[in-house]
Design brief:
Length: about 500
C-alpha cells in the first residue's frame, strides 16, 4: 500500500489542474452557472454562495488557474507524506494482526495460501494504481477516479475482508473530494472507516485518520452538524499520538466549525489564534502548496461567504481572519491579492470607501506582481479602483480608468455585467464633474440624463447578476445618494 499511496500522490502532484478560460468575475460566474446544471453538487454549491456568487466564483476560477500555472512550473505538489503516514503507522506495525484477520478469507489454504493471496492482492493493486496514475498524469481525474472505483469493486469481490482495501477507499475518497463529488467521496470514506474499524478497532490511530477524512468531506459538503462529532472523535484519537501531523488538520477544521457557529465578530476573532496555530503546523508538516492545506483554506473561505450573508461586521471579521491565514501560507500570493480585492469590493458596496482603497491597493499590487497589465485580474482591480473613485470624489481618475475597463469588458462579452457597472460609474463621474458655474437648467438636464444612464446600467447588472447581488445593491445605494445630493428624487425601485 505504500507504493499505491506514493504513486497516486506523485501523479496528482505532477498533473495539471483544470484551467478556467477567463478569470473575470462575470466570466467566472457564467462558467460556474453553465457547469452547475450538469451535477447536483455544483447546484448545491451555487446556492450556498448566494448573492456573493460572483466574488466566490472568481476566487475559485483564479485558484484553479493558479494551480494550473504552478503545475506547469513544477511548483504544485500533492502531500505524499500525508497519505503515507497512516499506512506507515498502521499497516506496517499491525501487519501481523492484518494478516491474521485477512487469513480468514483464504480458509483452507493455510499460511502459504494467505501469503499467496496477499501477494496476488498487492500485484492487482499495483496494476490498478499504475492505471490510475497514468490517467491522473494526463489530467483525467474523473477517469482515474472511475478506474479506481471499478478496481475496488473487483478486488473486494476477489479478496474480501482485506485491510488494504481501506486505503484504496481512502484514496478514492480523496480523488472525489478534489473533484467536488462530496456524496461519492463520503461513501468511500465511510467504507474506509468501517474496514479500518473492523481490523484495527475503534480506538486505533488509523481509525482516527478515517474519521478525520470523513469529517473534512462533511465540512466541504456543508454538513457541519454531521462533521462536528467526527472531527471531535478524530482529534481525540490523534491527540494521543506523538506529533501526529493530522492532529493539526483536525483542530483546524474544528476551529472552522467554531467560525461557522459565531454570532458576532468577537466570536469569530476568538477562533483566530487556534486557526493560526494549527495552520502553521500544517504548513510545517505538509508544505504550503499541499492540497490538504488548500482544502483546509477552501473550507474556511466558504465560511467567509456564509458570514458575509449574516452581516457585514461578521463577514469583515471572517475576511480578515482568512487573510491572516493566507499571509501565513504565502504573503506574496496572487490568491491573497484576490481575497483583498474581494474585501475591497465588499467595502465599496457598503459605502466604506476609506477602507476599500487600502485593501484594493495592496491586492492590486500583489496581482500585478504575478500577471501582466492586460490580465483579467489586473483589469478587474483597475475597474474596482475606478468605481471607488467614481463613488468618491476623484471623477477624473474614474473617467480614465472606467473608460478603459468599459472597452475591455465590452470586447469580452455583449451585456457583460462589469461593462454595465463601468457605465454606472462613468455616469456618476459625469455628475460629480459638472461645472458648478453651469446654468441650473442645463445642469438639471445633465444630471437627469446621468441618473437615467445609471438606472439603465443597474437594470443590466440586475439582469446578469440578480437584483440582490452585492454589486447591484451597492450601485443602487450610490444612485440614491447621488439623487439626493443633486436634488433629484430617487428613481422608484432604486
Amino acid at each position: 500500500m505504500r507504493r499505491a499511496s506514493h504513486l497516486l500522490a506523485s501523479a496528482l502532484g505532477r498533473s495539471r489542474a483544470p484551467c478556467v478560460a477567463s478569470c473575470t468575475e462575470a466570466a467566472a460566474l457564467a462558467c460556474f452557472q453553465q457547469s452547475s446544471t450538469s451535477s447536483t453538487w455544483r447546484q448545491q454549491q451555487q446556492q450556498v454562495l448566494g448573492r456573493h456568487a460572483l466574488l466566490n466564483a472568481a476566487r475559485q476560477a483564479t485558484q484553479q488557474q493558479l494551480l494550473h500555472e504552478q503545475a506547469q512550473q513544477g511548483t504544485w505538489r500533492f502531500p505524499a507524506q500525508h497519505l503515507l503516514l497512516a499506512h506507515q503507522r498502521c499497516f506496517s506495525s499491525s501487519s501481523a494482526q492484518a494478516s491474521s484477520n485477512a487469513g480468514g478469507s483464504d480458509a483452507g489454504s493455510g499460511s502459504g495460501g494467505a501469503a499467496g493471496g496477499a501477494d496476488a492482492l498487492q500485484a492487482s493493486m499495483d496494476k490498478l494504481v499504475d492505471t490510475a496514475v497514468a490517467l491522473v498524469e494526463e489530467n483525467r481525474l474523473q477517469q482515474a477516479t472511475q478506474v479506481l472505483q471499478q478496481g475496488i469493486e473487483l478486488l473486494a469481490s476477489t479478496f474480501p475482508d482485506r485491510p488494504e482495501l481501506s486505503e484504496l477507499h481512502n484514496q478514492a475518497a480523496l480523488l472525489l473530494l478534489f473533484g467536488g463529488q462530496h456524496e461519492e467521496a463520503a461513501k468511500h470514506a465511510q467504507q474506509a472507516l468501517e474496514i479500518t474499524q473492523r481490523f484495527f478497532g475503534p480506538a486505533h490511530p488509523l481509525t482516527g485518520h478515517r474519521l478525520l477524512r470523513l469529517g473534512t468531506i462533511r465540512v466541504a459538503a456543508g454538513q457541519l452538524q454531521e462533521a462536528q462529532p467526527l472531527l471531535a472523535a478524530a482529534t481525540d484519537m490523534l491527540s494521543k499520538q506523538a506529533e501526529d501531523p493530522s492532529l493539526s488538520e483536525g483542530l483546524f477544521y474544528l476551529h472552522v466549525l467554531a467560525v461557522a457557529a459565531a454570532d458576532s465578530p468577537q466570536e469569530v476573532a476568538a477562533s483566530t489564534a487556534g486557526l493560526q496555530d494549527s495552520f502553521k503546523h500544517m504548513l510545517a508538516t505538509l508544505g504550503a502548496e499541499s492540497m490538504i492545506v488548500r482544502l483546509a483554506l477552501a473550507a474556511h473561505s466558504k465560511q467567509v461567504g456564509v458570514a458575509l450573508d449574516g452581516s457585514l461586521a461578521l463577514g469583515e471579521a471572517a475576511f480578515k481572519q482568512h487573510i491572516s491565514l493566507q499571509e501565513l501560507q504565502d504573503a506574496g500570493s496572487a490568491e491573497l491579492g484576490l481575497t483583498l480585492y474581494q474585501l475591497a469590493t465588499t467595502y465599496y458596496a457598503h459605502d466604506m470607501l476609506q477602507d476599500a482603497g487600502p485593501a484594493l491597493q495592496r491586492g492590486s499590487a500583489l496581482l500585478r506582481a504575478h500577471y501582466p497589465a492586460e490580465h483579467d485580474l489586473v483589469q478587474l482591480c483597475k475597474h474596482r479602483l475606478g468605481m471607488v473613485c467614481a463613488a468618491g470624489r476623484d471623477y477624473r481618475s474614474a473617467t480614465l480608468l472606467l473608460g478603459e475597463t468599459l472597452q475591455h469588458y465590452r470586447q469580452q462579452q455583449q451585456g457583460h455585467p462589469l461593462a454595465h457597472e463601468a457605465e454606472l460609474g462613468l455616469a456618476m463621474a459625469r455628475v460629480k464633474g459638472l461645472d458648478p458655474r453651469m446654468p441650473k437648467a442645463d445642469k438639471d438636464t445633465a444630471v437627469g440624463e446621468a441618473l437615467q444612464q445609471m438606472r439603465a446600467a443597474l437594470a443590466g447588472m440586475a439582469t446578469a447578476l440578480g437584483a440582490e447581488h452585492l454589486l447591484v445593491t451597492g450601485g443602487s445605494r450610490y444612485l440614491a445618494q447621488l439623487a439626493v445630493m443633486t436634488g433629484h428624487a430617487a428613481p422608484q425601485g432604486s
